[in-house]
Amino acid sequence: MSEQSGGAAAPEIDWEALRHAARAAMHLAYAPYSKYPVGAAALVDDGRIVSGCNVENASYGLTLCAECGLVSTLNATGGGKLVAFACVDRHEQVLMPCGRCRQLLWEFAAPGMVLDTADGPVPMTDILPLAFGRQDLNS
C-alpha cells in the first residue's frame, strides 16, 4: 500500500490564496544569474500556508529551488504534511516542479496531496507515479 493512500480529511483548498502566496514568494526570490524567479506555496494539514522561493548561487549546482525553501519553512514552523501545492514562474504562471522537487514534495506529502497545474489540480500520485519513499527503505 502506498504511503499516499488513506488518511484524515484535509482542510479545504483555497487555490487563489495558494497562488497569491506563491506569487508573493516569487517576488522575494534571489535569481541574479538566471533571471528566473520562482515562488511556491503549499497548504499544510493543519491549515497553515507555507511558501518558499528559489535562491541562486554563483556555483549554479548549489542553487536552491523554491520547493527547498518551502520544505525548510514547513519544518522550521512546526512540521506537518502538505495537502496542496502551487508554484509560479516569473510571469506568475503555473509552473510544475522538476523531478528532484517532486521527490522532495513526496517526502512531505499528506495522503491525497494535489498539485496546481495548467490543467487544474492533479493528485501527487499522478505527478510522481510509483514513487520511491520511506517504505522502500524498510524492505
TrEMBL record:
**Keyword Phosphoprotein included in the entry's annotation:** no
Check the record and name the InterPro entries matching this protein. APOBEC/CMP_deaminase_Zn-bd (IPR016192), CMP_dCMP_dom (IPR002125), Cyt/Deoxycyt_deaminase (IPR050202), Cyt_deam_tetra (IPR006262), Cytidine_deaminase-like (IPR016193)
State whether keyword Acetylation applies.
no
Instruction: Name any one GO molecular function.
Output: cytidine deaminase activity
Q: Which UniProt keywords apply?
A: Hydrolase, Metal-binding, Zinc
What cofactor does this protein call for? Zn(2+)
Q: Where's the CMP/dCMP-type deaminase domain?
A: 13-135
Looking at the record's lineage, which domain of life comes first? Bacteria
**Record's catalysed reaction(s):** cytidine + H2O + H(+) = uridine + NH4(+); 2'-deoxycytidine + H2O + H(+) = 2'-deoxyuridine + NH4(+)
Which of the seven top EC classes does this enzyme belong to? hydrolase
Where do the TM regions start and end?
A: none
- Please give the family membership noted in the entry: Belongs to the cytidine and deoxycytidylate deaminase family.
Which PANTHER family has this protein been placed in? CYTIDINE DEAMINASE
Q: What does this protein do?
A: This enzyme scavenges exogenous and endogenous cytidine and 2'-deoxycytidine for UMP synthesis.
Under the heading NCBIfam families, the entry gives: cyt_deam_tetra (TIGR01354), PRK05578.1 (NF004064)
The name under which this protein is listed is Cytidine deaminase
